[in-house]
Design a protein that fits this description.
This protein is an all-alpha fold. The protein has a single domain, classed as Four Helix Bundle (Hemerythrin (Met), subunit A) (Up-down Bundle), CATH 1.20.120. It is elongated and about 50 Å long.
Length: 167
């Protein structure tokens, strides 16, 4: 059964520590970062979601054709590759979310979404290395409710940052 588809900067710190250790100026070593505006947060989230959704649409075609045991084009290697690609896409989306400084309920919603995605990523990793389509089908049955929960979390996050639900 196919998945349903919807959805450090260390160097400056080290330089500041070295400067302080060598008796540098007593002024602050780095300015406080300027918070993002709501529009900037919305734009960054929208870009991450768009990238995910475009990749997911492309992956879904291969996944639906190669992972469905009743499909005439079922193929273990192609299915594993699609599932691995879906996992990597989810990781990239999550990393993009982590780079956005959410606050308040948006931060809470992001935490829920990232937790759901971590569980999905783990199952996708298992499915991408599964020895048979039947094993993949069993893992997909575990992923489906997590995808629904993650989609709900994403809707809550969108609402928290002032974006409408996707059309």
């Amino acid at each position: 059964m196919p998945f349903p588809h919807t959805r450090l900067t260390i160097l400056p710190g080290a330089a500041a520590a070295l400067l302080a250790a060598c008796g540098g100026s007593s002024s602050p070593s780095s300015p406080t970062p300027t918070p993002l505006t709501p529009a900037q947060i919305q734009a960054r989230y929208t870009a991450a979601a768009l990238h995910y959704n475009q990749g997911e649409a492309r992956i879904a075609t291969t996944e639906n054709a190669s992972c469905d045991p009743t499909s005439a084009t079922v193929a273990l290697a192609a299915c594993q590759s699609a599932l691995s690609e879906q996992r990597q896409l989810t990781i990239a989306y999550d990393n993009a979310l982590r780079s956005i400084p959410f606050s308040g309920s948006a931060a809470t919603d992001t935490g829920h979404l990232l937790g759901d995605d971590a569980a999905i990523e783990k199952l996708l990793e298992q499915a991408a290395t599964a020895p048979a389509i039947a094993v993949i089908a069993t893992l997909q049955q575990q992923v489906i409710p997590l995808l629904a929960t993650a989609a709900s979390d994403a809707l809550a996050l969108r609402a928290a940052i002032g974006l409408p639900a996707p059309a």
